[in-house]
Specification:
258 residues, alpha/beta, eight-stranded mixed β-sheet, globular
């Protein structure tokens, strides 16, 4: 099965369905995955199949490579819409995540002041004060919440260690609206069990939690690339649109990506 392992620490720019022209910042090794989740739908594959041998990029390496790329893009007449922390796993796992955010904001202001700084995170590190504070400083604090059902999360996201979705939800509320919730909806099976989270039994409690968190925006999407687990299927456009419309009806901006 095909998987994508991104260069590190800078990759792209690439076209993002949700963010536009995105210059990627990968705080994980260039030869493998480091993540506190092991999602069955991850385009980077399973953690155990991509154990890295290289170290994490240093803060200094990230800043130097980012400045080089932004300078090159400026000389070529290119301007990214967004600088996106993503890549081969969970960016907030990096021990110098907060300092790297500060470096990135400084370089953004110097080379492409109209670009947004975005972080794609699975939310597992938002209990760390320095991570929380850093996410408050970025433009797009995009946090994953695939469902509010613990059984489903354990079956699909495979969190490492203890994961309490109730605690994650309470911590999401502490961003006071400076949060974009990102949720994947899909159909199909894994190991003979359904992974369809598009039905009312999943969507209704999720919508209620979203309303309680009061995010600035919600992004719902579905599978776009090949997954490491066979049997997964895209959610239909009609179902995604129906979920999007329920969020909008609750007074929260929402987009759907197919």
């Amino acid at each position: 099965m095909a998987t994508i392992i991104y260069p590190s620490p800078i990759f792209g720019p690439v076209h993002s369905r949700r963010l536009g022209i995105s210059l990627g910042i990968n705080l994980l090794p260039a030869d493998g995955k480091v993540c506190s989740f092991d999602c069955i739908y991850c385009e980077c594959g399973f953690n155990e199949d991509h154990r890295p041998s290289m170290p994490l990029p240093t803060r200094e390496q990230v800043a130097r490579r980012l400045e080089e790329k932004l300078r090159q893009m400026a000389s070529d007449g290119q301007r990214p819409d967004v600088l996106t922390f993503a890549g081969n796993g969970e960016p907030t796992c990096h021990p110098h995540f907060a300092e790297i955010i500060d470096d990135t904001i400084r370089l953004r202001n110097q080379y492409c002041p109209d670009a947004k700084v975005s972080v794609l995170s699975n939310s597992t590190m938002i209990h760390r004060p320095e991570v929380h504070e850093a996410l408050m400083r970025v433009d797009n604090n995009i946090l994953k919440l695939d469902t509010v059902d613990p059984i489903y999360i354990n079956k699909v996201d495979h969190p490492a260690g203890t994961y309490d979705v109730g605690s994650i939800i309470e911590r999401m509320k502490t961003f006071n609206g400076h949060i974009i919730i990102q949720t994947i909806f899909m159909c199909g099976e894994c190991n003979g069990e359904s992974v369809d989270n598009t039905g009312d039994e999943y969507v209704t409690p999720w919508v209620e939690v979203v309303k309680a968190i009061r995010p600035q925006q919600v992004m719902v999407y579905t599978i776009d690339r090949e997954t490491p687990t066979r049997g997964l299927q895209k959610a239909s456009r009609e179902r995604l649109d129906a979920i999007r419309d329920r969020v909008i009806a609750a007074g929260i901006p929402c987009t759907a990506s197919y």
